[in-house]
Task: inverse folding
């Protein structure tokens, strides 16, 4: 049985990418960037083990109930989930888009991120704090558009620095944008 270690799921958010999305935060990260916004999700410990089938059911319910347009992977480190390409394939079969964060360089993990529409890559560098692009924590991180699905969002949604995005993760609120 294919399983995933899930830290948290938000079934409808507009803060984790363009349009209404479901966001999955995976448990476990071996990159451990200093200043990480999700330190509670770094440990490789069983949090909420979910089968592929159960995870797809949650996504289908969110699509029906909230009209989500896509799914965002966050973490922890999504590429630590060995069956991620299978999940991506199932999500895409539902007609949904997929955006993934990774602290690694895309070129090093392109196989496990196969099928994603957009990848936000690069390790978080606290001293390079990003204030212009939404969702990214530091200026070294890239937005890689792999399909046409979100091509128009790159210049407007991700680069809309007039808006502040706040994300509540555990006991922290992370703000991104030029208005703090």
Result:
């Amino acid at each position: 049985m294919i399983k995933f270690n899930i830290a948290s799921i938000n079934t409808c958010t507009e803060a984790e990418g363009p349009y209404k999305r479901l966001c999955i935060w995976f448990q476990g990260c071996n990159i451990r960037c200093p200043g990480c916004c999700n330190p509670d999700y770094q440990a490789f410990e069983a949090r909420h083990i979910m089968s592929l089938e159960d995870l797809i059911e949650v996504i289908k319910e969110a699509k029906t109930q909230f009209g989500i347009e896509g799914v965002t992977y966050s973490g922890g480190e999504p590429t630590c989930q060995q069956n991620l390409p299978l999940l991506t394939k199932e999500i895409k079969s539902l007609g949904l888009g997929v955006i993934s964060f990774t602290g690694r360089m895309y070129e090093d993990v392109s196989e496990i991120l196969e099928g994603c529409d957009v990848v936000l890559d690069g390790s978080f560098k606290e001293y390079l704090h990003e204030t212009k692009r939404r969702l990214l924590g530091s200026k070294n991180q890239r937005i890689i558009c792999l399909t046409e699905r979100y091509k128009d969002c790159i210049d407007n949604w991700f680069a809309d620095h007039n808006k502040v995005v706040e994300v509540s993760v555990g006991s922290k609120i992370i703000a991104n944008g030029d208005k703090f």
